[in-house]
Amino acid sequence: MGKSGIDKARRARLDILREAALHRHVAARLPEGFNGRWTRRQWAHVSLFATLAALVAAIVPGFSDSRHADGIAPAQARTTLALSLPPLSVAKLRGHAGDSWQIVHVERGQTLGSLFEDMDLPAATMHQLLEQPGAKQALTRMKPGTELAFDLPVDGKLRAFRFDRDETHRVEYTFDGDKLTEKVIERPTESRTVVISGTVGKSLFHSARKLGLSGGAINTLTDDIFKYDIDFNEDVASNDRFSVVVEQTWRDGELIRTGPVQAATFTVGGKLHSGFRFERNGKAEYFTADGRPLKKSFIRMPIPYARLTSSFGSRRHPVLGTVRQHKGVDYGASTGTPIMAAGDARVQFVGWKGGYGRAVILDHGRGYTTLYGHMSRFGEIKQGQKIPQGKVIGYVGMTGLATGPHLHYEFRINGVHRNPLSITMPPPEPLNGAALAQFRSQTSNALARIQSVEKVIYADAGAPPKKNKKA
Ligand SMILES: [Zn+2]
């Protein structure tokens, strides 16, 4: 940008600031991209959730223990009171009366240096800031979205600068010539365990997002907890309902973080499915109410959106033309479709294997192995590596003896080929002993309580729920 360009930008900025100073209503506009805080209308709604939160926090005491494992400081106060309607004070958002705060959100690739340059502020001022022991670390490694505030009066000289050192500390520096005064503002957070409940509507994702569930939490429902019991493409209807227990962290009336799904229910066609989070050997898993893992030892079909094109048993080989046993099943899918590990495993073989072309063999322990053939390319795996169920091990192709792109999948027990579509898969290890006792104490009655919460929301829980009214 040339000198005249900078002048122009500077003049434009000063005009805006002057305008703001002359007409306070201009300043009263909320900052652009304002989305973190809730409107009054949303606050009115939250009182419903807050009431439910109180209910759950009071009756599911076990969940309050689990957050220690999530790394959330146990010292944080747990609020179980209903939320009151906070004043939406513009003065509070913008600083104080008579000031001229500009709020900036750091964009990807932006540094403090480039920001200062964009705002036409002297580098010396920035260095003055970076010399402060409490500022350097936070300001040199800023994530996109980080909020910074500049107090820029009409004369264009930086009067004060504000940033968040961490989640609970906001730091404000006031410039007075060469002197900088630091003020640290404590911003306490509150954790609340809430039940978020809704109906599927037109789209589970959209309905759940509207209720404040994160994309990650929704994925937990569809990919971790209910994946084995509910077909989200086929089974779910608009009036089916879900309830999710999560811990939310709030600060100044702003939801800043949502923890993992602690418990969830999904009612599909009147049938209730439920899952509870519990850490076994330091690893979080989801279990049924009686402590059996929701995750199966093996996924029945290690490939999404495929059709069975050749089943297990005798058939004429499509390439060789001879009749022989087909020792696996074939799934037709387009080249590049990801192939997942059917179960937790150790990678036994990755490479070219005769007619199988590019193939992977996984050892799942207890005598179980699986083979995946004709891949176009491999996933990021190497021999000997331990991988979790669902890990992408390769992509559909037609290498080796194949007439078209498909996955050839074999399932062996102690070296003997079995039909993966008809054998009874080994059940995963249930919780037992001390772990089961701990699980029970954490989740006891939780399901019943979610149901009582649903009764509050739907009034007619059991019968088809009435349409979830959106205000
Ligand atoms: Zn085959």
UniProtKB/TrEMBL annotation:
Tagged with keyword Membrane: yes
GO BP annotations listed: proteolysis
Matching SUPFAM superfamilies: Duplicated hybrid motif (SSF51261)
GO cellular component: cell envelope
InterPro entries: Cell_wall_metabolism_enzyme, Csd3_N2, Dup_hybrid_motif, LysM_Opacity-associatedA, M23ase_b-sheet_dom
Pfam families: Csd3_N2, LysM_OapA, Peptidase_M23
A GO molecular-function descriptor: peptidoglycan binding
Keywords annotated in UniProt: Hydrolase, Membrane, Metal-binding, Metalloprotease, Protease, Transmembrane, Transmembrane helix, Zinc
Domain Opacity-associated protein A LysM-like: 101-174
TM ranges: 43-63
Domain (Csd3-like second N-terminal): residue spans on this chain: 193-312
The organism's place on the tree of life at top rank: Bacteria
Cofactor(s) this protein cannot do without: Zn(2+)
Protein name per UniProt: Peptidase M23
Organism: Lysobacter dokdonensis DS-58
